[in-house]
Amino acid sequence: MKDRSEQIVTGSVNAATVFGEAANFGAADVGTLDLSDSFSVPTLTTTQRDALTASNGMLVYNTSTNKFQGYEAGSWTNLI
Question: What global pTM score does this model have?
Answer without folding.
Answer: 0.57
